[in-house]
Structures are given as structure tokens and as C-alpha cells.
Amino acid sequence: MRLQDCLGGINDIVTRKAIFGDIIARPARGLSEGQSRRRAFAAGLIMGNQQARIPKLVAGARKAHSLFDEAKPFWKSPQRRAQAQPSSTDSERDLVPAAGVQPLAIES
């Protein structure tokens, strides 16, 4: 899986969880009590299904990030890099994360 696909999938699940949490918490107008219960039950089933996908998406994101992190920049050849004068916008420091940046922790 690609990194963007995995992170997008996790974002979609978190968004759905918020929407379905609202559905469960507030009955819709015009529905009977039984209909509201069935609606909340269906939302819970969907949330459970979505929540079960998170570990696979996190694992896929970690793998994709690892592959991305190991990739060599294709836009700079080794010869050009050695000949080029580094500038503030064209330096290796721009390609690494800032000190103290920690990866996002995803609860599953």
C-alpha cells in the first residue's frame, strides 16, 4: 500500500467515527424509538468494521514510510550533488525531519 492511501484510509475512518458517534448519540427527528435503535446499531456495526481496519492501515503506512524513507532522491544525481553549492533551500538538512519530531501515535 502507498503511504498516502494508508494515511487517507485512517483519516476516513476517524472522520466516519465522529459522524457515526453523533448518529449514535442523537436520534434523528421523525424516527420511532425502534428505528433510532436500529440506526444506532447499524452505525455501531460500521464503526466496529472500520476500527478493525486500522491496524492493517497503520502497518501499511509504516511499511510505506520505511520504503519512502529509504528511497534516494531521484531529482539529484550524485555528480550534481557533489558539484552543487549548498544553499539554504537546497541542502540535505531540508530532507530530514526536524529534531524532536515524533511519529504520530495511532490508537487501535
Question: Your description of this structure?
Answer:
The protein is mainly α and 108 residues long. It has a domain of 68 residues. α1 packs antiparallel against α2. It is rod-shaped and about 70 Å long. 5% of the residues are buried. About 6% of the residues have low confidence.
Rg over C-alpha atoms, rounded to the nearest angstrom: 22 Å
Task: Kindly report the average pLDDT value.
Answer: 79
Helix-strand pattern: HHH
- The number of helices is 3
Please summarize the sheet with the most strands: none
Oligomer: single chain
Helix-residue proportion: 55-70%
β-strand percent reads under 5%
Query: What's the overall geometry?
Result: rod-shaped
Structural class by secondary-structure content: mainly alpha
Distance between the termini: 19 Å
Let me know the number of strands.
0
Key phrases:
108 residues, mainly alpha, 3 helices
Give me the secondary-structure topology.
Elements: H1 3-25, H2 33-70, H3 78-83
